[in-house]
Amino acid sequence: MDVELLLRVYPFFLKAALVTLELSVLSILLGLGCGALGAGARLSRHRVLRFLGAAYVSVFRGTPALIQLFILYFGGPQIGIQLDAFTAGFIGLGINIGAYMTETMRGAIIAVDKGQNEAARTLGLSRGQAMRRVVLPQAMRLMIRPLGVNINAQIKGTSLVAAISVVELTYTAQRYIASTYKPFEMFLLAGVIYLAIISATGLGLSWLDRRAAIR
Amino acid sequence: MLNERPVIEVRHARKSYGAVEVLRDVSLKVRKGEIVAIIGPSGSGKSTLLRAINNLDPLTGGEVWLEDTQVNEALPPRRYEAHINRVRQDIGMVFQHFNLFPHLSVRGNITLAPMMLKGIGRKEADELAEQQLARVGLSDRVDFMPSQLSGGQKQRVAIARALAMKPKVMLFDEATSALDPELVEEVNLVMKQLAEEHMTMIIVTHEMGFAQDVCDRVLFMDRGLVVEQGPPDVVFRQPRHERTRAFLRKHLQLRD
Fold first, then answer.
1. Which residue of A has its CA nearest to B144?
2. pLDDT over 70 (residue A180)
3. Where is the ABC transporter domain (chain B) (predicted)?
4. Does the distance separating the beta carbons of A115 and B99 come in below 8 Å?
């Protein structure tokens, strides 16, 4: 193990980790938005919306995220969508994780006891009011843990955008391998940084989950 | 008094799930201040009838009236939604499993609907919560969370929550069936007190003793029909129908 090399390159890896973090945050935010819309559509009274929600989920969960990224980044210009690699990366990843988050959110909403909705409705609350004030506050607490699983997957999933040459952690590791011929050290270093990000996120999510628990 | 409209009137209610008929032509009138118990074996349709009154389980035929408003009036979906939300404010309901909102305090449970629907402010809503809690004997629990209450206390809060909307009628769907035996009495006491205040009530229950003590009229239902109805003394002491007798025999034995 070439420790000296590691000490020399780690600042560059940390810089690249910032890009990974940015990608993670942006794609997760986009994913949460897509998930909320998707879950709303899947639980809608309107058949067309339900169909669109289901189609979104089955298409984006049914194809590799890498293929989705390739279509967006390489195929996009052919149909007039011209995005730089970073933008294509976080949009592609965000829409992809949004399909998983759709199912997570829908599951949490359905998991709230249906007596809750009934009680709210019998008091005279409308569908929307019952959803906002009674069902969603309970569903949000139920979805923290499973969304944590999605988020964890997404942070690791950002490594895919190396394939469309976004200079993030994985891509940086590959680049240093090309000049140093030390794949063991370089990938190990990248892995350790991913682990640190994931662990910190996990701690944050557990804290949130504990805080949100209904006493 | 002579020509006063019933508070609740059900006319020729029918309900089927596919080929299964749960209600077959059930009619019912409940006058102001009257307390009606609905008894019968499980699957007899009594809960379905109760849940049809506020349209939680819509009928497939027949009408439900709250005074001079038809609860299940045929309206286009959007207008029906507004209509039923208004009607439900006047029909309180208490469930077997309480269905308190676990993320809200006792106060929040009681004030949520009045604040959202009656346009009253925080202060007035708090006073309302205190009044209603006093009515069910839980004034000291206003800042508790539901999880900190016993089953009996939860059900009393659920009753206070329904009462806070100042309903014209209260529906009780086996309100004590999920309670430990020693907690049944405190809920029964609250219901008795409401009876003394002449609250109009329709009570689906398995407790024959309570029905006998508190109610003005008892309906015995079986297989989607009202088999027999009358004052409790008559229905319990001299039932006319064999099915009623068989049901009561079983239940009175169980009690001893």
1. A215
2. yes
3. 8-248
4. yes
Best probe of the B interface among A116, A118, A121, A122, by most B CBs < 10 A, is A122
* Contact status of B89 with chain A (Cβ, < 8 Å): yes
**ipTM value for the complex:** 0.91
Specify the DSSP element, H or E, that contains B62: strand B61-66
Question: What is the pLDDT, as a whole number, of residue B256?
Answer: 43
A215: confidence class by pLDDT, cuts 50, 70, 90: low
| Helix or strand holding residue B8 (H, E) | strand B8-17
How many angstroms separate the CA atoms of A93 and B80, rounded?
42
CB pair distance less than 8 Å for B112 and A214: no
pTM: 0.87
For residue A158, CA distances in Å to A22, A70, A116, A168, B163 come to 10, 14, 39, 8, 54
Residue B56: list chain A partners with CB under 8 A.
118, 121-122
Mean pLDDT by 10-residue block, N- to C-terminus, for chain B (256 residues)? Answer: 80 92 93 94 92 94 93 90 94 95 95 94 94 93 94 95 95 92 91 93 92 92 92 89 88 60
| Nearest residue in chain A measured CA to CA from B114 | A123
User: All domains of chain B, ordered by start, with CATH?
Assistant: 6-94+169-251 (3.40.50.300)
- Domains defined along chain A, listed by start: 3-214 (1.10.3720.10)
Report A:129-148 residues touching B (Cβ under 8 A).
129, 133-134, 137-138, 141
Q: Which of B89, B99, B113 sits opposite A116 (nearest CB)?
A: B99
Bridge-based pairing of strands B61-66 and B8-17 is: antiparallel
Helix (H, G, I), strand (E, B) or coil at B203: strand
Q: How far is residue A203's CA from residue A191's CA, in Å, rounded to a whole number?
A: 18
Contacts of B105 in chain A (CB under 8 A): none
